[in-house]
Amino acid sequence: MSNAWSTYYCLIKNNLIKQMKSYSFLIVVLLTLFLGYACVPSPTSGYQVFYIGGVRGIYNSAWLGGMVTMMSTLLLWLFAFFMLRSQVSEDQRLKVGQIIASTPVSNFRYIFSKAISNYVVLLVIELLLFLAFMGMQLIRGEDYYIHIADYLQPFVFIVMPSLLVLAALTVLFDVMPGLKGVVGNIIFFALWVCCSIVSIATPNSLLDVFGLDIIRSDMVREATLKYAFLSASEEGGSFGYYPVEGTSPTFVWHGVEWSPSLLIYRLAWVGIAVLLILVSSLVFNRFRTKENAKRSHIPVIYEPKKGVAAKPDHSHEYRLSPVEKEKRVRMMRLVRAEICMMLKDCSIWWYLLVLGSMAASLLIPLENVQSWLPVLALWPIAIWSQMGTREKFYFTRELLMSSCSPLNRFFAVWVSGILITLLVFSGALVHFILDGQWARLTAWLVSVLFVPTLAMALGTLSGTRKMFEVVYMLWWYMGAVNNLPSLNFLGAGTSQSLLYGILTCLLLIVALVGQQIKAGVLGGSSAKGNNSKHYDKGGVS
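Above: the chain's sequence. Below: its structure in token form.
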């Protein structure tokens, strides 16, 4: 038993150290500190984050403890999932999985250690956020006495069970067939939206995994008792950016009274999390791949010959074709090769969906095309997300640097992404041309340039697909689906097209600078100089 606990301890410690050294962990921590500042605005800031008809609670420990609990369970679920969801796949990509598969560590112990490791990382981020809110309580100065229990109770009863479910889902989506990659990301995003809606629609029920309404409904009830006009208001407590004028009326909120039924509901989610971990361990294939399954093992029979050793057989000689260096780069050949690599993992069903979407874009009436466009803008997300990330994922950066210039390869990938996007969106473009909708055609062409450029910039800067996928899906959901004017990159307005055209140019410049820095052209490192120093004469000096 002591050996098992020491194994768990080493795995959890190593995973925590690895996560704390990553850029994604640093970004999440910085975002956490920013939320701690932005979600506790000063009385003269002119906005509110949690809106109850224009009133708010005094910044005491109970109010800020409830605020940090609601904000963290809602937002941390989304960002932390994309940060932690590939721990098992990363072991396989780095060839560590084969070593683990040969050890006596059981599937449950391995999966359980991964889930608990992710859980510890989530708790560390959450503790930083709670400390940030405690600091903001002292900075705002409306109540200098920090009640640890008012912060600790929602942390234990709401945050810890919710994050345990999230940790279990990060592992389940990483081992369940069909949930890996971009498909799983889209499914989880839809699950996150559904859980957010259910959390508000079914107050104080077992279905509320976030635990939002346990706190929200109690805050609204206390505010309504103090200010009667809130009973006629439709604002029942919602999150967002709400401008307010003057000083907001305040009231004192003393926290949630934790009933046994609420605690049982939260304890039930702990059991659900353990069940998810158990299911993950049952479906875990222990790093077996199709290539390994098809590989045949033929026994080798040695027949040593007495006497003189046999002469080597030179009957089969292999000659490599000579390398012919061309004076100019054939960009179309590079673009064609990039398009083939982008589409190589697409199944026949993907092509059928693309053809169906192109036909539907032509046949749908013009007044219904605008509602169809967000659906169309989701098909190529798996292709966009690999732009600028493939070299790091497959460890081919040094190999590609020796084949052609980084700048030519950059534009080949960028142009390939634009051409594939243009192909997928061609049905809508033809429809706009036939109907003479030039404003919509302009906006749609700008989006054809904007989305691949966004993918190229985020992929080049981060080196992973996850950053683009989470940013794009949030942007797509708030802008294209909910039609927020400033975020709708599919909008038909001329001024909005100009805005996204300028943003596309800026993103392209950012991607170019990032690519040149990685290639050693800009910055302190020079790959060419290092190579010439070590390999000029065929050896290592």
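Residues 117 and 242 are 37 Å apart (CA to CA).
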